[in-house]
Every structure is written in C-alpha cells, then in structure tokens.
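Q: Predict the bound structure with heme C.
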Amino acid sequence: MKSIQRVICFLLLFSGSVGFSPAFAEPDLGQKLFKEKNCALCHNIHNPGTVFAPMCPGLQGVRNRHSKDWIRKWLKNPARVWATNDADVQDINARYFRYRGSKPKQRESFMATIIGKKVVLTDDEIEALIDYLWKL
Ligand code: HEC
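A: Predicted complex:
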C-alpha cells in the first residue's frame, strides 16, 4: 500500500514538473515581475500603432530593436546606458521625437530620471523579464 502511495505521489510530482497539469503550472515569472517592479505603470505592451504612448515606448516587438545584452545593461543602469548615446539610445530618441513630431534633441532618460536607482533587479529577475519581453 505504501509503495502505491509513493508511486502516485511520484506521478503527481512528475506530471507537475513537466507541465502536464495546468494546476501545477508556474505563473510566468517575467510577467509577474513586470507588474511587481512597476514596469507596467509606464509601459504599454500592446501598442503596435504607436511606439510612444504617449511618453514611454510600448514594448511589443522590443526584441527587434535591441539585443538581450543591451537590455541587460539598460535594466541594470539606464542612466549609464543613456549617457553613452549609443545607436540604441539614438534610435529610442529618434522614435520619441518622431512621435512628438519635432526635431530630435538631447534630453534626459525619463526611465532613469523617474525610477533612478529604485528598481534594483537581480540578474535572475533581469533574465526572467527579458524572457517575457522576448515573447511580446
Ligand atoms: C517611470 C516610467 C518607466 C518605468 C517604471 C520603466 N520604464 Fe522602461 N522606459 C521608460 C521610458 C520613458 C523609456 C524610453 C527611454 C527614456 O526616456 O528613458 C523606456 C525604455 C525602455 C526600454 C527600451 C524600449 C524601446 O522600445 O526601445 C525597455 C526594454 C524598458 N524600458 C523596459 C523596462 C522594464 C523591464 C521596466 C521595469 C523593470 C521598466 N522599463 C520600467 C519608462 C519607464
């Protein structure tokens, strides 16, 4: 009897770990973090029409605009990345001013100014967020 119970227990655990049963499914960690870390306060994710809506870029298709490595650096320290004025930063800026209908000029990073160093993400959290962003 005991061994039967053990077998049933093993089967239940196993089916959970390989995702056979939705009851055992892990919630999407990246999606959870996107809300918990307040990314969702600023970022609209499903706005294929406008890249800035009205101030922050919608994140749909963001995998086509940046490398994972760039996002890693950005999420660690947006101020430092913004200051490099690299091609990715220039692209964000160009999109922003195109959306506003005015000529690009130097401006501060809103993300860095507003959230500053308050969002502290671990490397694992950053990877989970990137996995989530890559699905959008
Ligand atoms: C205070 C509002 C705000 C918050 C909170 C915020 N962002 Fe941003 N984010 C921005 C803005 C604005 C930009 C555009 C660059 C700039 O001005 O800083 C941006 C740019 C980005 C980009 C590049 C988008 C593109 O289209 O090129 C990514 C990716 C991103 N943010 C992810 C995140 C994630 C993940 C979080 C949560 C940890 C987050 N942001 C939190 C405002 C915010």
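A: Confidence is low (pLDDT under 50) at residues 7-22.
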